[in-house]
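Late entry, written up from scratch paper. The run itself happened at the end of the previous shift, but nothing got recorded in the book at the time, so transcribing now.
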Amino acid sequence: QMQLVESGGGLVQAGGSLRLSCAASRSIFDINVIQWYRQAPGKQREWVATIIGGGITTYADSVKGRFTMSRDNGKSTVYLQMNSLKPEDTAIYYCYMANTWGQGTQVTVSS
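Output as recorded:
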């Protein structure tokens, strides 16, 4: 069974940037749809971004224009570049592909 490992989270001030990574334990060439989700304290998990095929991306309205999702099939890794971070972006961020969730990485944005 495939495993996913997220990394890149941390503590950042509002307005700052972070780049999250999600490394898969096997090739992702055949995985068409890959997504990022996040879960803030006391809230339900919510969708953040999707990448389809070679690079068609869609984003939640709350992050559109600030976050960019990409994939590197050669490295079996997907990325989430997060700019202009806001305190409301504070959450655990998870990647999801092929019915598999990663363990998540914590992002904390201070005001």
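Residues 14 and 100 are 31 Å apart (CA to CA).
(Scratch paper discarded after transcription.)
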